[in-house]
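Cross-check.
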Amino acid sequence: MEDKIKEEYFTLLKFPTVGADPAHLRDCTACAVWLKDWLAALGFATELLMPEKSFAPPILFAERKGAEGAPAILFYGHYDVQPPDPVEEWKTPPFTPTICGERVYCRGAQDDKGQLFAFLCGMRDFIEEREKAGGASGLPTFKIVLEGQEESGSAALSAMAPEMRRRLAADALLVCDTNAAQDMRPAIVAGLRGVSHFTLRLSGPSRDLHSGAYGGIAPNPAQGMAELVASLHAPDGAIAVEGFAAGLEPPNDDERGKAAEAAPSPEEYTRDIGCEPAGGENGKSIVERNSFMPTIEVNGIHSGYGGPGAKTVIPSEAIAKISMRLVPGQTPRRAFEAVKAHLEARVPRGMKLSIEDWNPGAGGFRLPLASPLFRLAAHVLGEMDARGPVFQWDGASIPVVSILREASGASPLIVGWGQAEDCIHSPNESYSFAQFDKARDWARRILSSLHS
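Predicted model, tokenized:
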């Protein structure tokens, strides 16, 4: 990596762009301005779109017009990052880029600042190569959308995208925010699960109570919340919510077979996560559970006292954060209404349940394997790696991709270069220089192929 690019990359990483936290709105705005200036220097017309009636970070839209009749290419990425918590588990300061061996450690080093900036650098390489060769007049039109709210649901961009159809219109939608297969074998993402999330609040007594004086009398919200979230699944791990999976579209045999080709083994998952991969429904393969089946996950439960020693109380309330990963055929609203009805029918006696902060997100999607764009990508990736690419149906979500796909009319092409050891969403996130170089080279090559 050249010194100039390393300096730019590290500058980008130093912005603490926790988009979900209003306290970091100024940091997000400063980061968006930096990216705006970077793209403007490359000849882009740039604009910061400020969501109305919201404290959401700005959305950066940039466009560099190409030749008449040339294809239009839309690139999407996000500059926001996950909170660094738990900070005490970081071995280096979370917002100070630190080189250890051949990796850069920092929040956002991979997700998605590292991946998006590597792609933008590859785009710059492509533009500069064509300009030096005297072919700048024949370049495609580039459109770029960078947001600061992906990690918390992309609410602002999701609301604005349908009104931007003409501006977003493109032939291809490129995204670099996913993983390669094991050992850095290239992977084309042929589908993503959707995501939706909300907060449960279960309240009981008007204050925390002495567990001796009121034990056996007052209802306990901590216990009640445990019962509620446990009711979401059957003993075999299957989702126990009636109507949750209504309309689910199962994969075909070709999709199942290709998804299994490069899937890690149970032993490899055990080494990765530090425990047996025993989540989900018994009797289903890891590939089915992670790629093609929906989930309901408890992201966190908070109630009562959790400090050192003991504090013998009956807590007055309990809070749980819930997320749902959705697959094609499900809709966020229908899935949410099914879960809501399930929980409301099981509120423990003497307590009150409220369901707050629902973010509908977006549904999942799968793309046809025979698409011309996939064939082109497979050819390019085969030139980069003799093993050729595999297809993946990613269990994670980039909710706004399906919305951008509809608004732009573009065919999505999702290729990323992450690896499990990057530890995204965890302390000590990192990205290797080799991965950065792969993402940069991929961008240059695919843009060149789309242009020719």
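The chain has two domains: 3-178+398-451, 194-265+285-362. The mean pLDDT is 94. Passed to J.P. for a second look.
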